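User: Second chain of the day. Same drill as before.
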Amino acid sequence: MKQQNVDDDLNNSLHLGTSYPIEEVEDFLVDIDEIKDSLKLTSSLNYQGVEIQFPYGKAYPCQEHLMEEIIQALIARENCLLESPAGTGKTATLLCSALAWQQHEKANLELECSPPKKSKTSVNQNGESSQVPLIFYATRTLKHIDQIVDQLKHSSYTDTPMAILTSMVNSCKNEFNDYQCEDADSDEHFCQYNPENLKWCQHLRGQKDQTWKISDLKDFCEKSNKNNHFQTCPYFELLDAVKNARIIFCTYSYLLKANMREALDLHLNNNIVIFDEGHNVENVCYQISSTPEDFLTYTNLTNFTSILESDLNSSTVSVSLEKKEPLRVVVETLKNFRNFLLALSCIFSEPVEIFFQDFLNWFASTGFGPSNLSKLRKSYNILNNCPYPIETNGRRGKVSREVLRFVGDLLGVLEFLWEGDTYSRNESEFKIFLTSALPEVNLQILCMNPGVAFQQMNVARSVIITSGTLSPMKSLSTQLGIPFHRQRSECHIVETSRLFAKLINKYDGRSNHPLELTFSYKENSMEWMSIQRQLGKIITDICRTVPKGVIVFVSPQTNVSKMIDTWKKNGCWKAIKENKKIKVERKGMTSTEVKELLDGYRESALNGGAILFAYMRGKFSETIDLKDVHSRALVTIGIPFLPKEDLFIENKIKYQDRRFNSNRESGLLDGNQWWTINALKALNQAIGRNIGHKYNWGAIFMLDCKWNEISKREMLPKWIRVTLRNSGEKDEAVPWKKMLPNLAEHVAQFEK
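Assistant: Same format as last time:
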């Protein structure tokens, strides 16, 4: 069974995945402009005595606002939500303000402690740690970490000791094929190294510029291993770098999973936690505290138990005495759980809910109950301990990594489930279901409250979440379960005259059917055909009016192939094709296919013109910047609501309704509000793809008659609401034909 990576495809849906942190490493998804040389045009800003050195001359007003908000939050030990559109320099703002405050705090502590105290655990007279707070900077992918390090390199804070956390698979290039076994997993790692040969921190010590990337560390280790005839390992070098780091970069899982923090000795108390691209955090919390579909199945438990039993008894796998008993404990527990599922095998057409107390009793009988969990965790940690010595006879000294990932993910979910002494709170926060499709039986544990996972962050000095799309912030603050006293949303740095945006409810005043894009109409019905004809004519007009690249994002529920078939029949497809080269995203595309499609689209957009049809909640709506000629117009068709019949969505809506009805004065969302906001956040992420810098220009059109509702318009980000108001007298939805002349005038300003 292939386990889903929590840091991959986070925005595709809320279908839940496991959390083993093999981070996304593709480098083609973001269209990156080289970071401009600062040319020493630094500026200095001072907020409440904290002096910030900013690397790019005068900061934009939105950057100044965010820096002031961050400094105030750090001083007051408060959490904050900060929204600023793509291209407004959030990364430089975050880094410079947080590191400036850290330096300021370090200087104050050194003045208070003369001579300076070396102990990292000393406390002041208020009982608080006097250690200078560390900064944990979490983001979605390794590629984004590289971009952040690039920003740090161009700042005045390059002398800050840093570290990057990533998996052994992504960091170590050492290969010792002579020791590999035929039964090894594809990602098993056989690295011999001498702990005394760790040289990276020594190499960096004393250098003014201490910024680095994983690729730099790999190159250093490769050269050292070749030239100096000693073995060192990039993975253990980066773990060594963590010990003296003042800022640590990682993906979300390293902070949100308690067992990973414990394994790496990471402590959040009194430290600063930053979640960049934080619109993904809620989804990650659901994922790491729930089991995905087809995870806890009889087949998986049978296969994994068989593998571990083989490892325990096989002559080809060397298991030390230290690991024999932990392995036996894990094997017996998995066997008990397997037999438990087998006993539940029956035929039922609908998911069956398991009551919490019954589930508690059943799991206790298998050995996965709360009283046995610490023993299981200890056994797992021993088995998962690194490094793994290879004996001289060539036998491998470790058990299957695939099985260990399975056990680790299950333990992670159960630790959230059994948290606390009474588990009374957990009964309302989790739902447990049995589903059956013979001969398979599947047990799903679904966490309804992302705060179950995120509340661990509340021990930090300050938690800062930033993104281009956090609106409406009320949703995120109530879902994550910790207070965010500071919330700020900024406008775009692009002049409003360079952006043109409109909400479209139908083609023209004569159209009998508004653009009702829930697709509830029966295909080929009169209503459905009318809507498809209107959509085709709007896209045709855009292709004729707007030069170069056009991006069209559709709802995941849209049947694009049938939409295209209809356009082919009514002539719209031919008209579009006469003006633009057409590219279409397919669901389930591989990374290689996505890269080829993106490269082809960009080339066609630059040389004549192209249109790309892509999905909201897909790869192209997250992390890919399509700006300038690649996207002179961006269109959204529909609003990407998740299907209410989905097991998680159905129960999440009911959960929110119960919470709302139990305390209507708390500011909590009801189920329909949560469902709507979730969809609009996905749409907001898509509309931020095409305006990436101050001198860009373009147009944004959102097609759906639901934009007639004021409540939905108010959930759009501040910058798009301002743009809508400045693109006409009102921000309400209008017929397409009414505003087409205005679009032509807007394009004419810049295409002379």
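The first strand starts at residue 43 and ends at 47.

User: Great, on to the next one.
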